[in-house]
User: Which sequence fits this backbone?
């Protein structure tokens, strides 16, 4: 059951995140700092931020449901991120760092012309909006099932928090907040994994049906070809996503940018079992579940003690919040640098561009 202590933990988490935004907001004086962190972020910190940006609460909803229904194929899908992250880092990280400073599209005009640059701006914005709407749907599902909030309230509350610290602190605040949220998420998922297998890890796994261990499930649509296509989609996303590209070009040097891919790969290699193995044990713990999309939040409510439920829900919120914060910042960078500065205010002073960049995040918030 949800306790008062759980709500206190979640409230403290949000207060900390907003505090980070306020702190870095006072230090941000230029558009380059707001959208590119002045290329001064350590590679390991950008790597953790990239990892947190690369998934959201929808991953816990989707993969736990897959583990409940189809077993280890859920882990196989997540492990496709390992080679995708390495390949993206090796092939594209240093290139992104060399060509971009304040916007992931600023180099396009030099190489391909203004038509290509503006085409990518207006094709990319609707896609990002749709993608972020799916993430908001997932976080609404998690919070409404885990804490008993209404779906609509959960979505609005999440957007307000994201907008709050992104508006003030920019990319550096987002990346530092990602690290804090990573620690919080890790504490929660490790605790849940331990409790899910408190009867013994091997005895629990040995009691699972034999088809749990099939690496592919063609009858459900998850054949080897599907896994390869999923890997290709991940690689393209890691290499071209506006928000993820920001992590590459915010680092201090080219070698550090390449290391980001290996950090992300290592975190997925280790984190995947921690995140999704509880889903394998969920049939024994929960029995029959009417809405399988609620497997993970129901595991949280069933297993976690007072206070820890709030910690993990805050961690799941953080996974979506970090993704949305990065997306809002990247979308604002594109609107400010690739549209306004290019067509309306070519000689706009730096302080006014910074204000417009912050207002751009408000625009993204209002559209969502």
Assistant:
């Amino acid at each position: 059951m949800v306790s008062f202590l759980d709500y206190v933990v979640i409230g403290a988490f949000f207060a900390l995140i907003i505090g980070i935004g306020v702190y870095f907001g006072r230090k941000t004086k230029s558009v380059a700092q707001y959208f590119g962190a002045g290329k001064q972020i350590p590679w390991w910190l950008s790597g953790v931020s990239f990892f947190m940006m690369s998934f959201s609460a929808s991953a816990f909803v989707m993969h736990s449901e897959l583990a409940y229904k189809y077993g280890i194929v859920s882990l196989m899908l997540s492990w496709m991120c390992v080679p995708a992250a390495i390949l993206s880092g090796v092939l594209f990280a240093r290139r992104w760092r060399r060509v971009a400073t304040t916007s992931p599209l600023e180099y396009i005009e030099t190489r391909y012309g203004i038509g290509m640059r503006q085409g990518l701006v207006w094709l990319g914005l609707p896609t990002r909006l749709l993608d972020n709407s799916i993430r908001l749907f997932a976080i609404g599902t998690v919070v409404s099932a885990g804490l008993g909030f209404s779906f609509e309230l959960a979505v609005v509350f999440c957007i307000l928090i994201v907008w709050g610290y992104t508006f003030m602190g920019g990319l550096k605040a987002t990346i530092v907040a990602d690290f804090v949220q990573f620690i919080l998420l890790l504490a929660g998922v490790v605790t849940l994994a331990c409790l899910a297998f408190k009867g013994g890890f091997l005895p629990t796994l040995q009691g699972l049906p034999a088809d749990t261990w099939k690496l592919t499930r063609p009858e459900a649509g998850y054949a080897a070809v599907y896994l390869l296509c999923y890997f290709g989609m991940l690689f393209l996303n890691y290499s071209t996503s506006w928000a993820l590209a920001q992590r590459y070009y915010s680092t201090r040097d080219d070698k550090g940018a390449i290391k980001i891919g290996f950090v992300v790969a290592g975190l997925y290699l280790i984190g995947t079992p921690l995140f999704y193995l509880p889903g394998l044990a969920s049939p024994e713990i929960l029995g029959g579940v009417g809405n399988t999309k609620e497997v993970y939040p129901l595991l949280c409510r069933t297993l976690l003690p007072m206070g820890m439920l709030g910690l993990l829900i805050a961690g799941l919120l953080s996974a979506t919040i970090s993704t949305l914060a990065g997306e809002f910042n990247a979308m604002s960078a594109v609107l400010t640098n690739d549209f306004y500065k290019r067509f309306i205010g070519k000689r706009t002073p730096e302080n006014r561009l910074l204000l417009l960049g912050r207002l751009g995040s408000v625009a993204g918030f209002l559209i969502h």
Observations:
- The two ends are 31 Å apart (CA to CA).
- The longest helix spans residues 151-196.
